[in-house]
């Protein structure tokens, strides 16, 4: 059944309060609920329907009188009085049988929950929709030592604990955790003097890996006060680490639950990347307390209201805490590699979709990351002051409410008087706008003409122009700025802007000459720029652009030109790319992380996207071969400089995860990967032997595996970390990611037979299969073996964990770009999945969208 945004209607009752009692037992947990309802004056009325799935109804009563509701697989309906009434009900559920990891389930010996989006209905009968908000009181009865829920602790004793959450919340923010856990504690005093007890709860043995999460949490709390004036609102803030978790983390009120991979860190077990991600995800979930919890979504179509905004806020936090240009480049890389891919294929959907079958399928890179880009564009368009004023107004107006994108935008149009109706198209139109730029120079004036067009996407053949904020500057051909960054708002299909260069030259004391535009600075809009420029211009911008993002972008364009030519059998002049590398590596003003980003080639999937957009049928093996050839040549050409950079960027002393040290390691390890191609892996072997932290040992191991070596090191690593789940995930993932194209499927298949391949644990499943899908040449190897293997495993996983299976099917969404043989094999694999009897709604929806039926 398809749900449509246009069908929204409020729930006919309001909930005044919810009292829950849990009698925990793995196979037969009893859940008792008492819910006070009263008629919703804003509703036209309707039947009393409560969601509920997989529940054994023990008893139900209305105002103390037993009732016999009509029960279906989706919920129950029941006759109720006209006025306010008390609903009481008892159900039984089996957390131990819950392998879907949605609702109340067991992660090892501990009880835990995941309710977003619609998991609460697997716990008890309830109006499980985000616009029904209520204060919750929870009593947990169990012999387990630690019993946690949302809000503040109010009572506890032998075998029970009680929690009270005074802040009205939707059911998707409910959480409960019970188990043998230990806490690492800290505290934070808010700027108005509230003392908040912080704790990270982990399994005994993991206590030593919690410090970074706590540091990150305190930094996030302080940042949200300083930048948005948002304070925390309970006496306690708990974080729990869970090994079996479908997603990354969850912002349940006062009780955030995290995939353990995104909380636990120690120098020996976590990489610099892990530290950075943990910091960002801790911040993300904490920031949800205001953007998501205090102000929530009216319905799930509005998911980007909380996710786009919260991603934007966590990006801002990282950019303030670390390096802003580096963060912007990382975000653009992610957006362009994954979101542009989604937007350009059969799964394309608007940031605010208009219909869905299974909402879990819409926790996508489009809703999250493109959603964040829309927030960033809005801020750019209204300016920093109006941005803060608009946010303040939004919080003030809607605190305690469940609202829409229209409400969000109204805060900004009210603050600025600006009409945001055209801007709103960004939320409704799928697809990546292409922005073509053309220059015209008459000797004194420069005219830039912009043409925008958004390609058709499923269900949306026609597109209207959107508002594109284009940040641009003009550089003098001798270097140096002729005009600093200005904002051009492109809102027509075609629009021009003219600069009086003679006048600009006079004002900057230069001679009149054709300037070099630097367009879409800071990646000011999520568009694909179509701006053919010469290699000389790219080289010039790489050397001289004053905008760091575009400087990096210029280097990337050089690499892209070379790879595109070589992957299509043409000859390319690599010299300008190498000259650019040399100049960047030798520039003392650039930071190490930035240099590492310049040195990284566009990913193979990115190149497939590029070639496809240019009208080619990409050949994944040719792309892989081209990338390998360029890397080999880089190593040969730049060997002394790479060796020197590698040496100069070793970080002495004990491991510290700060951005500067991490940046130096990143650069040194980029050099190491290249140098391994010429030194036979000698440096990498030494680094592996001497490493005292995971960043260094994993980078060394990856360098060795990539050159077809490192089997002894891989075995040593596997034995040493055999008992560490998080590190073993890396061990599984790395082998598949680094496998040569012809070995990737076989490597993955071999690993599925490893005794530690616990495929029901999402992290382990993804370690093998996300890595396989991410190894572009391996996934698309001509035999089709990887397609077959993934399909086999998705068919197996689907009945166990539909959410993870459905997400992983997306690996096939690129089929329309490839040649007939690959298309046929990919479609056959999809067809086989589709034909599986009893396929979940989650996976069925994904397969049918991917196939375009
Ligand atoms: N709200 C969580 C977050 O982004 C993610 C929840 C994922 N849930 C899901 N059903 N996919 O912080
Ligand atoms: Zn989120």
From TrEMBL:
Q: Does the record carry Metal-binding as a key word?
A: yes
Q: Which SUPFAM superfamilies match?
A: Leukotriene A4 hydrolase N-terminal domain, Metalloproteases ('zincins'), catalytic domain
Q: Which UniProt keywords apply?
A: Aminopeptidase, Hydrolase, Metal-binding, Metalloprotease, Protease, Zinc
Necessary cofactors: Zn(2+)
**Molecular function (Gene Ontology), one example:** metallopeptidase activity
Enzyme Commission numbers on file: 3.4.11.2
Q: Do the record's keywords include ATP-binding?
A: no
Spell out the family assignment given in the record's similarity comment: Belongs to the peptidase M1 family.
Q: Mind telling me what this protein is named?
A: Aminopeptidase N
């Amino acid at each position: 059944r398809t749900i449509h945004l246009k069908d929204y209607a409020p729930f006919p009752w309001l909930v005044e309060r919810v009292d829950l009692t849990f009698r925990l037992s793995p196979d037969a947990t009893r859940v008792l609920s008492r819910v006070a309802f009263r008629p919703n004056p804003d509703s036209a009325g309707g039947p009393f329907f409560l969601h509920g799935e997989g529940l054994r109804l023990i008893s139900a009563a209305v105002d103390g009188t037993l009732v016999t509701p009509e029960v279906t697989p989706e919920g129950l309906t029941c006759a109720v009085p006209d006025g306010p009434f008390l609903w009481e009900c008892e159900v039984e559920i089996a957390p131990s049988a819950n392998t879907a990891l949605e609702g109340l389930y067991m992660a090892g010996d501990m009880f835990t929950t995941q309710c977003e989006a619609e998991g609460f209905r697997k716990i008890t009968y309830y109006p499980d929709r985000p616009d029904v908000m209520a204060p919750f009181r929870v009593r947990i009865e169990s012999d387990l030592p630690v019993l946690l829920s949302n809000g503040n602790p109010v009572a506890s004793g032998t075998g029970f604990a009680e929690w009270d959450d005074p802040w009205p919340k939707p059911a998707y923010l409910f959480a409960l955790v019970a188990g043998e856990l230990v806490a690492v504690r800290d505290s934070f005093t808010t700027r108005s003097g509230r003392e908040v007890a912080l704790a990270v709860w982990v399994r005994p043995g993991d206590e030593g890996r919690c410090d970074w999460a706590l540091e990150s949490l305190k930094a996030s709390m302080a940042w949200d006060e300083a930048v948005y004036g948002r304070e925390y609102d309970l006496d306690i803030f708990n974080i729990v680490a869970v090994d079996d978790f479908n997603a990354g983390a969850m912002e349940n009120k006062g009780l955030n639950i995290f995939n353990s991979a995104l909380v636990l860190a120690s120098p020996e077990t976590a990489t610099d990347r892990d530290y950075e991600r943990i910091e960002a995800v801790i911040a993300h979930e904490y920031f949800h307390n205001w953007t998501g919890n205090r102000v929530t979504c009216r319905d799930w179509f509005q998911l980007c209201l909380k996710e786009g905004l919260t991603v934007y806020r966590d990006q801002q936090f990282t950019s303030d805490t670390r390096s802003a240009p580096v963060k912007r480049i990382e975000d653009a890389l992610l957006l362009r590699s994954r979101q542009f891919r989604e937007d350009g294929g059969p799964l394309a959907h608007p940031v605010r979709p208009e219909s869905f079958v299974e909402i879990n399928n819409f926790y996508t890179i489009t809703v999250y990351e493109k959603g964040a880009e829309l927030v960033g564009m809005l801020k750019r368009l209204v300016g920093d002051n109006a941005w803060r004023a608009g946010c303040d107004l939004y919080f003030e107006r809607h605190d305690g409410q469940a609202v829409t994108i229209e409400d969000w935008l109204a805060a900004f149009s009210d603050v600025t008087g600006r009409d945001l109706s055209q801007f709103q198209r960004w939320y409704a139109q799928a697809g990546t706008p292409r922005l073509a730029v053309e220059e015209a120079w008459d000797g004194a004036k420069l005219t830039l003409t912009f043409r925008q067009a958004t390609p058709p996407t499923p269900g949306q053949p026609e597109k209207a122009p959107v508002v594109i904020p284009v940040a641009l500057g003009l550089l003098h051909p001798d270097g140096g700025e002729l005009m600093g960054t200005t904002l051009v708002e492109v809102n027509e299909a075609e629009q021009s802007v003219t600069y009086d260069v003679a006048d600009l030259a006079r004002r900057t004391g230069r001679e009149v000459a054709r300037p070099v535009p630097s367009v879409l600075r800071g990646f000011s809009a999520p568009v694909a720029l179509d701006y053919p420029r010469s290699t000389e211009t790219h080289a010039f911008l790489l050397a001289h652009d004053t905008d760091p993002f575009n400087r990096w972008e210029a280097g990337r364009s050089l690499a892209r030109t070379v790879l595109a030519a070589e992957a299509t059998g043409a000859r390319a002049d690599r010299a300008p790319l190498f000259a650019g590398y040399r100049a960047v590596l030798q520039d003392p003003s650039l930071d190490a992380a930035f240099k590492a980003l310049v040195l990284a080639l566009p990913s193979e999937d990115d190149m497939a996207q590029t070639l496809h957009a240019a009208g080619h049928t990409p050949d994944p093996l040719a792309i892989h071969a081209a990338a390998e050839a360029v890397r080999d040549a880089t190593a040969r050409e730049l060997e002394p400089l790479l060796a020197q950079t590698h040496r100069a960027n070793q970080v002495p002393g004990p491991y510290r995860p700060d951005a500067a040290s991490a940046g130096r390691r990143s650069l040194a390890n980029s050099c190491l990967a290249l140098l391994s191609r010429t030194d036979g892996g000698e440096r990498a072997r030494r680094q592996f032997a001497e490493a005292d932290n995971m960043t260094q040992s994993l980078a060394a191991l990856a360098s060795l595996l990539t050159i077809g070596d490192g089997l002894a090191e891989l075995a040593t690593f596997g034995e040493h970390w055999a008992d560490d789940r998080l590190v073993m995930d890396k061990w599984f993932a790395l082998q598949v990611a680094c496998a040569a194209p012809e070995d990737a499927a076989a490597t993955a298949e071999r690993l599925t037979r490893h005794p530690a391949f616990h495929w029901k644990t999402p992290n382990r499943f993804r370690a093998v299969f996300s890595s396989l899908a991410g190894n572009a040449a391996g996934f698309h190897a001509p035999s089709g073996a990887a397609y077959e293997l993934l399909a086999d495993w998705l068919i197996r996983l689907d009945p166990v964990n539909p959410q993870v299976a459905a997400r992983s099917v997306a690996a096939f969404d690129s089929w329309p770009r490839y040649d007939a043989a690959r298309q046929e094999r990919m479609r056959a694999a999809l067809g086989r999945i589709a034909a599986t009897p009893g396929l979940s709604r989650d996976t069925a929806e994904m397969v049918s969208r991917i196939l375009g039926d």
